[in-house]
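Task: encode each sequence below as structure tokens.

Item 1
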Amino acid sequence: MSIFLNVLASSEELAPLVLPALAFPLIAAVVFTTLGFVTWSFRDVANRQDPKAAKAGDAHGAGH
């Protein structure tokens, strides 16, 4: 029974963290917000340019 009590009484020591526990989710939120802003800033980029196929076809007189 004493082994059982020793195991029950012993507890693991917590590893020290580099930053407070609240800092990790805040850093993740800042990173995801920044990446979301970068993704949002490149929206509609494909529609800003003329299609190359239409330009090339019209230059050769093949404007069907």
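Item 2
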Amino acid sequence: MTTRAWWLVVLNLVLPGSAQVLAGNRRLGRFGLRATLTLVTTAIVAGAVYLLWPEVVLTVFTSTVGLWVAAAVLAFYALTWLVLTVNTLGLINLVKAAPGARPIIAAFSAALMVVVCGTAGYGAFVATSASGFLSSVFVGGPSEPPVDGRYNILLLGGDAGADRDGLRPDSISVVSIDATTGQATTISLPRNLENVPFSAGSSLGALYPEGYGSIDGCDVSACMLNSIFTEAELKRPEYYPNATAEGSSPGIQATLEAAQGITGLTIQYFVLIDMQGFSDLIDALGGVDIDVQNRVPVHTDETFSEVLFWFEPGMQHMDGYHALWFARSRHGTSDYDRMQRQTQMQEALLAQASPANVLTKFQGVAAAGTRVVKTDVPQGMLGYFVNLASKTKELPVVSLPMIPENGVDPEDPDYAAIQAMVAAALAPAPTATPTP
């Protein structure tokens, strides 16, 4: 009987339902077998489709409907495996097994039940949580096509510290991604650029046709690039009456139009990362590893008056609190250093947020993510961008910072030269001419 008991346990594990067909309720067994074979067949088909058309599978599993279906399927199989395992334990008839084998068989079966059913149940929980997260962060608007073969995304690192009147972006960059290869170029824009032009048709640009604040000043204290967000958001929201309904805001839209005017690019989407909420996201992921290039101070409070300690050069593992200080510290560094550190922090977190790490800590990540990210990327484009991002990770990211070392004077920038630099950086690499 002991050998029979082990066979039934193994059959229930390898092919759920087979134990019942051989030694118990055949109707239940056939149901279990059909469910098992359907799951295996579906997994094989999905795997084959993913190998051929990964975007199709990713689109399904980054949609609200797809995630709810996945959650329902996982919950169904968790319940099915639970019923089959309990029924198998009844078929085993432990009292007839060898006395020494009874606790081992029972413990092994219980452990399998907990692992298999628990994994499926947790998967269902993650799927429903992911569905809620995606619905709260990503909009349902129309998809935009690539322009000149590229997707251009405005990336804003927003800082709403206690010393500020609302949120103001300190890190402003445009990420330009080749729509076919995934090759990415990051164009970093200094927050203190002056006389900023706007793209054609800009609402705020109509008020400043010669550049932001270049003639009669502006409606905020400093007429710089990151002040455009504040002016549109707090002083002139009526210039962008539809922004909120479209999943954006007046400040974001005005900044996007300014970034288009600076770079000469058409920007399809934006992503706003709130640096305050960034701290929670880093903690949820278990910290972030940063290669510190120069000594950076951590202050005792938001006044930046007294240095508590210094981050020394080298690899440092930071929690959310210290990562935020690393990104925001002003003492002894320039705006360009601060801009570079914030970009470095964003890139490091994205690189280290592996799928396994996100899944095991999903509840905290999702809760923090809704406070960190605002974007108008439509949910229907997520599968495409996730697939494109997998290509991007395999290629080096080209960095193009608009800083004095690259010939950009923030007080008197030559925007024609900046646009020429951008065009040159994004130009396709010349193909080799075959030797005759």
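Check on item 2: The mean pLDDT is 85. The chain has two domains: 2-137, 150-426.
End of task.
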